[in-house]
Amino acid sequence: MLTKEKVQQRNWQPIIKQFEAVVGKNGVMQRREELITYECDGLTSYRQRPAVVVLPRTTEQVAEILKICDRYNVGWVARGAGTGLSGGALPVEDCVLIVTALMSKILSIDLENQRVVVQPGVINNWVTQAVSGAGFFYAPDPSSQIICSIGGNVAENSGGVHCLKYGVTTNHVLGLKIVTPDGSIVDIGGELPEMPGYDLTGIFVGSEGTLGIATEITLKIVKVPESICVILADFNTVEEAGGAVSDIISSGIIPGGIEMMDNFSINAVEDVVGTNCYPRDAGAILLVEIDGLQVEVDTNKQLISEICTNNGARTITSASDPETRLILWKGRKAAFAAMGKISPDYYVQDGVIPRTKLPYVLKEIEELGKKHGYYVANVFHAGDGNLHPLILYDNAVHGALEQVEELGGEILKLCVKVGGSISGEHGIGADKRCYMPEMFSETDLETMQWVRQVFNPKGLANPGKIFPTPRTCGEGAKVNTNKNFESIERF
Amino acid sequence: MLTKEKVQQRNWQPIIKQFEAVVGKNGVMQRREELITYECDGLTSYRQRPAVVVLPRTTEQVAEILKICDRYNVGWVARGAGTGLSGGALPVEDCVLIVTALMSKILSIDLENQRVVVQPGVINNWVTQAVSGAGFFYAPDPSSQIICSIGGNVAENSGGVHCLKYGVTTNHVLGLKIVTPDGSIVDIGGELPEMPGYDLTGIFVGSEGTLGIATEITLKIVKVPESICVILADFNTVEEAGGAVSDIISSGIIPGGIEMMDNFSINAVEDVVGTNCYPRDAGAILLVEIDGLQVEVDTNKQLISEICTNNGARTITSASDPETRLILWKGRKAAFAAMGKISPDYYVQDGVIPRTKLPYVLKEIEELGKKHGYYVANVFHAGDGNLHPLILYDNAVHGALEQVEELGGEILKLCVKVGGSISGEHGIGADKRCYMPEMFSETDLETMQWVRQVFNPKGLANPGKIFPTPRTCGEGAKVNTNKNFESIERF
């Protein structure tokens, strides 16, 4: 690891010269105005300018760059499109930011075996666009899917509205070509769903850039269903909507997705977007998307409507044609943006709870918000129990961010208390590492760090992410301090 | 690692005393006649008697046993029910065999959240039995499901007939309590489908006992579908049946399973079991199980029947009631046993190929069999492209086993050549480690071994499995010899 002393002494010129020899002069950025773009990702409350930005185009260039970093003991952070919400692509002081934006080729499409091989800079939505003509799609669909990159999705194991039925990124990555921090090129997984040997693909997906850089990703694509239908149901209370979610799941139906919005979110969306679909007086709405064979969709639509009615739904609307479906989805898709318009700032939390605890947890979150004096809007993947409480605040108010972070932390602890998790799909990144000891024992975290050491023995790959350290989490935080993993050499 | 010298000198008495202090006298076996049962698993062609067998009942006892092994530098092998087909539970000389048969409690059932927590010795089928009254089942269903244990399923990442739709073991394990070889108790994963941090659950499942022993396993259970239907279609040729498989999958239907049996297997089964269901003159039959809502099953049944007819099916039978379904399945389920009756010995191979290569590969396997002078029967998971060629031979014939292993190896190389894998669901174990370099580069294998070192630094956990060594694979074999992983200490 870098010491402060080394940082101050670093002479970047020979390093940059070597980078330029690999990627050319226009593949390296070091001017202040060029670097500003890269000082944060989607978690805008943390900022740190990198020393230099490098833009490789090939696996071999990535390997050369990492070898240079290894030689000079320089920390590096890989960045896809920079849309992540947990600060996973946040630079650290004196680091190299490796941006995969120019690695944006779809390398091969094999429709017969339902596989697409892409470079990491390929935008999520491009995969679906490339295969939709043949009747396929790429299932993981984060809200940012029109701008986020597959490489970032792999790092954060991204989810989306359709995870409930189709699973998250890890369920759609068959194999990877990765470059490890020492510059080795390693193929993990392959082209088949299951491969012998250790499942390194599983460990790499979601490792938030701490184990290496994926330079080729083999994705599984899925057949577009014959029929899709969106059901909108509105309820007097969040409890009733939560009851409907539980009953739908326990009926055995697996919808593509079940999304919930509370009264605050409904009104925010209607104020800003004006969909005129979501009743402003509803305590909560559910958007349930079902897909499959036409007969299956018809039957499930009826069953879900009955379940919603039995749980107190006031009105139920549904749409099967693409245009009307889009109208029903529009407000949900625009919900985060709407919050940005009605509030100077907002902080998106990401936690998971068992579905059965939905009504209790939403009530508690409301209480926590009141206690701290902030509005908390709830727009989330109800079917997965994946909450996204949006805390509205004004960053210009002195101390507000700290209070909001405290409130966010209390929400996470609540999630853990009821048997849930501190992250559903946004990752731990820089933002949540202090909360890892809430979920994992010291031995559990140590075991993860031993694994990290195998790939990343010098701690150069995405320093300061996932794992808590006393320095960043404050003296009082429960962090494992008995081993200095960052100084351990690989055997 | 043990050296030959140490082996000869080992005084087992103090070690056994310590084991007895942990599990009691009746938890330790060391008499020759007691040990004979444990000298092989389902791969009966390899045999090695362990020095001692220990039967723990709790996580803490497992931890104490592993600490003793660690202290005395004794290699150990964990064994579930011993039904594995790749020699994953094969003892090595002078080792402790840790048998989980007494850890057979179902610890908790949470129907609401669809989770069951079990000890590793719980038999696969017991999980379904425990929850079927409430309308749930445990999906992974290896042929041996009435005798194989969940611990063994976790080690080998077992599959089964229904993997096509439901996935293999790794898709149904949410979390694990494991004991690592140094005796640490670590919780990995949890109760939710996705957890933050590295996916250690994914890496543990399928690691064939080389990373530790799972002592509590949190399984996901699935709702029993409203309707199930089995379709039996017979064809003149394997090629026609293969074409039907491809067309079913590419139609977007995902059946629970698609099984294929060739003419040889059909006749073997009819000779022995006499189902009177499978036409003896058919080149191949397909058994397609579909499940879901009644309307969905009805629609898919019609579509699949049409696809089979278009591919030349001669007759199509189907059954929805449980009794008739069992009759249609009976021959398939008894196929391996039938081979055991018509041939003195048989060797089950396990390889995966892209579905589209089915007709070509089956033809080639037939040619390979002819070349070596052995019958090869094919009974397999056609929907997944997971072949199970059964090579019939007589072990009493001198040299036969070696020839059969050579033929088996050629079949595996063929699988790899067409873009497949050397194991679908039986694991690498002791049997196939020489073929790992056919699939993985030296760097790939090294990376896996670095990970192994983290958990298993002294190489005490299941020695001699998964990874090739020059000693076992012959001088000519392509194995990575440049690093002595077995002698590397953990940091």
TrEMBL record, chains A, B:
Residues 46-224 form the FAD-binding PCMH-type domain. GO terms for cellular component: glycolate oxidase complex. It is an enzyme of class 1 (oxidoreductase). Coiled coil: none annotated. Keywords: FAD, Flavoprotein, Oxidoreductase. The keyword rRNA-binding does not apply. Transmembrane segments: none annotated. Its cofactor is FAD. Its EC number is 1.1.2.4. This is Glycolate oxidase, subunit GlcD. The lineage of its organism: Bacteria, Bacillati, Cyanobacteriota, Cyanophyceae, Gomontiellales.
